[in-house]
Amino acid sequence: MIEESVISRVLGTALRTGGDFAEVFVEDKRSSSAVLDDGRVEELTSGRDRGAGIRVVVGDTTGFAHTADLTEAGLSAAAEAAAAAARSGGGGTRTIVLTRQDAPVPNVVEILPGDVPKARKVELLTRANETARAQGGAISQVSASYGDSRRRILVANSDGLLAGDDQVKTFFAVSCVATGDTGMQTGRESVGHTVGFELFDRYDVEDLARRAADRALTKLNARPAPSGQMPVVIGSGGGGVLFHEACGHGLEADLVGKSASVFKGRVGELVASPTVTIVDDGTMGGEWGCFAIDDEGHAAQRNVLIQDGVLTDYMWDLLRARKEGRQSSGNGRRQSYQYLPMVRMTNTYLLNGPDDPAEIIASTDKGVYVKHLGGGQVNTATGDFVFGMTEAYLIENGEITEPLREGNLIGNGPEVLTRIDALGNDFAMGPPGTCGKDGQGVPVGDGVPTLRVSSLTIGGTAA
Amino acid sequence: MDLLEIGDRVVAMARHGEQVEAVVSRGRDTEIKAYEGEIESLSSAQSQGVGIRVIAEGRQGFAYAATFDDDVLAETLAEARDNAGFATPDEFVGLAEPDGVAVADLDLFSEALESFPTDRKVELAVELERAVMAADSRISGIESAEYVDVMAEGAIVSTTGIRTLGRETACYVMTYAMAVENDETQTGFGFSVGRDPNELDVATAAAEAAQRATRMLGSVKPESERLTVVLDPWVTAQFLGILAFTLNGESVLKGRSLFAERLGEEVASPLLTLVDDPTNPSAFTATETDGEGLATRRNVLIDQGVLKLFVQNAYTARRAGTRSTGSAVRGGFKSTPGVGCMATSLAPGSATQAELVAGLGEGLLIQDVAGLHSGVNPISGDFSTGAEGLRIRGGELAEPVREFTIASTLQKMLKDVQAVGNDLQWLPMSASGVSLVIDEVTISGV
Q1: A60, B35: Cβ pair inside 8 Å?
Q2: How far apart are CA A301 and CA A283, in angstroms?
Q3: Distance (Å, rounded) from C-alpha B77 to C-alpha A302?
Q4: Cβ pair B87:A42 closer than 8 A
């Protein structure tokens, strides 16, 4: 994207007035999307985002500037701005010798979405719309969206690192509204992978549309969710966000470093049921949160966070790791060149346990079965977290019975981890997610087998 | 480079029979984070871009780019034109046309921000942290203390005769404080907003964060029961954000609004009057023109409980057979205009929050909520969020409570409004806050 010699000189400029570390992050992202709503293909959008972010670190202070001007003059101006922001004093000339350190790509992209005619993308939307509407007269509204992106990045820093990545993602979602005597209900299904247009050889948009429509239709007969504490069974695949919130964020080294995590100082301790092993894995080929290198140039890694219930390690980015004299764990990510990187999850999941999923439900006398979760939110300092249920049922006498209306569940991370009293053997990854932290969104994946939490608070209105 | 001139250059490339609109924007922002008395990070950034919408034969296409070179503008226009060819024809699709409504002069740009030295911005962030730490001996540290400012200018030019230019400044300080006692940690936030740094009140932001954090120490999980709640202004503002979705002309047309077909009906307590007024310069999101270049205006949506109006942009208005309410919203130059409320507020009542609490006897003051995006469905009306706050006993604030949810439905909550406070507060979002008393809310705890 930019010549090595130019980058080398820009890093030199960034450190000309001193500074311990400098980095250039270059990004060139092309994206396209198409939306069908209310029976019409409303619009197609194409965009290009291209620029560089430069940071200079002096002691504990980071200076950052970004620019859309990728000429040597533009980059140098940004480098000077970043150096000034970091208030580097000192001086001296440093020559940076860059060494290419690319990482293995997690998977091969077969069909670049940019090579696919727009008409084929639009055709997916109309098929999804027709299929969803055919699920019943009660389906009163359907929207479908398609999106793809190709993000090329290049990272170079004053340690001599030079690495690049080419990240292709393809996404599809269907949302339905069903209308009945009890009002309106909604159902949504989405699929997204770090792959090209071959996504649609593996997933059928009509199947997705049917499931979204069924979810909305089922809820037309739903009763209000209960209020209070009871056992909760989380369905395979659909429930990974539980762990993303319950412990994922709390294991991010930046929050731990500021004592803003209930998991601070607990490495080596038993923090979860002994059946629980939780992994964050950026190498998981094709998953929504995978990559060859993170946004600091570090190769993606598979990191075990909790092994057999024992907290093994936090997740790290470059700055937090440098401070501790250790290596990054490949979790330094950013939304775009316009942002500083920080510690972020990739694909976070819970490994299989020993139990038969059917038996988990059969052995639950009274509780709630959450088949599909919505988003969530956590306060890492207190550990309190919520997550939404978008498809849930009552469990009565070991059987799944009536569907429930939507609501949040609330729990406390460290408590919930110790309350996992059954863990199934039917692991599956869930739908693509966008994780928000400090105003930045990044793509993440998650997954779980069927599992049971012995007690969680259900935020419904029924007694 | 002049933004209007860039817009003119795009529009000049329109073909016969084609509508073209260019949204051109440029911004500069500073973000400073302080930690342990030092600068943790200082970011200074400039961003810019152009979004181009093409409409031909009832079809719309869109493309954007981040540079203004002539070849990029031509390529982006060509891409938008190509995209339009794939849309389904729709007779109502079209750009906004000037409607004669005068644009208010709101004075949203402060020269003082431009000349405010970076060193003093840094001092504000550092001072914010110091003030939080000094506020209470139980404050153990901060999660963040930051100063942020933005200067933005934007132009919209179209073949239909729209040609607007606006610029504004905004800044805020914000902090998350942590309080510790007996191994228990609690958090609280505080902030202050203004058009320039001279308007910021660091001391109050720090005191609020410290108070919110310390008053949660010793909190317990409450009993599950049905109670009357007092929403803190911060929580009410978020509630209004959700309500706004149901009053959006697009939601109505597309069958996603609870309130479609209910204009003129009583949908809320008579105590409730909801206005969307981006021409109020006190609003953080005040703006002179909307996302299609029409003058913004004061719209009364609910008047003493009666549903009066849905907000509209040019497309939804045309399709609904009415006029745009100047409510086209867009997320910068990278998206086409949608429709939405921009600066909503409730008509305030006469009581202070303390008076509302005293008048209740039993209840719960909700200080903060979590998971509005995951447990609230504005289409079905189901409402359930995580919450924290203080129990009200005998008309006084009693023990702090956390790890519970509050639940009801949007329809029922509007009807169950018992009182509106007099503590109207503009917040860094598209709604203002005011204390709001709502009856019959289900608390799920122990």
Answers
A1: yes
A2: 6
A3: 44
A4: yes
Of the residues B157, B179, B214, the one at which a domain ends = B214
Q: Is residue A89 one of the residues assigned to a domain?
A: no
Domain range for residue B354?
Answer: 219-446
Contact in structure between A337 and A52 (CB atoms under 8 Å): yes
**Helices A205-219 & A118-133 angle (0-180, nearest 10):** 30
Query: Cβ(B395)–Cβ(B360) under 8 Å?
Result: yes
Residues B200 and B224 in one domain: no
> Could you give the ipTM of this predicted complex?
0.92
Q: What is the mean pLDDT of chain A?
A: 94
Q: What is the mean pLDDT of residues A225-252?
A: 93
Ramachandran angles phi, psi of A137, nearest 5°: -65, -20
The closest CB to that of B87, out of A44, A81, A260, belongs to A44
DSSP state of B296: P
Query: Do residues B144 and B205 touch, judged by C-beta distance below 8 A?
Result: no
DSSP characters over B52-78: EEEEETTEEEEEEES---HHHHHHHHH
B383 and B243, same domain (yes or no)? yes
Q: Is A38 exposed, middle or buried (0-12, 13-18, 19+ CB in 10 A)?
A: middle
Mean pLDDT by 10 residues, chain B (446 residues): 94 97 95 94 90 96 93 96 96 96 94 92 96 97 96 97 95 96 94 95 97 96 97 96 94 95 97 97 93 98 98 97 97 93 97 96 96 91 96 97 96 97 92 96 96
Rounded to whole angstroms, how far apart are CA atoms A134 and A217? 12
The structure tokens listed for A303 are: 């990191």
Contacts with A381 from chain B: Cβ below 8 Å: 143, 178, 185-187
The Cα A291–Cα A285 span in angstroms is: 8
CA distance A307 to chain B (A): 26
**Residue at a domain's end among B164, B199, B214:** B214
Taken as a whole, chain B contains a residue count of: 446
Alpha carbon distance B295, B164 (integer Å)? 10
Chain A and chain B share a number of CB contacts under 8 A equal to 249
A415 at B interface, C-beta within 8 A: no
Residues in chain A: 463
Pick from A61, A379, A386: which is nearest to B40 by CB?
Answer: A61
Assign residue A398 a region (left: φ > 0; alpha: ψ between -120 and 50; beta: otherwise): left
Q: Are residues B205 and B330 in the same domain?
A: no
- Are residues A191 and A429 in contact, defined by beta-carbon separation less than 8 angstroms? no
CB A53 within 8 A of CB A338: yes
Q: B191 and B245: one domain?
A: no
Chain B residue with CA closest to A458: the answer is B444
Which of A63, A87, A408 lies at the smallest CB-CB distance from B405?
A408
Question: How many structural domains comprise chain B?
Answer: 2
Residue A239 domain boundaries: 227-459
A432, part of any domain: yes
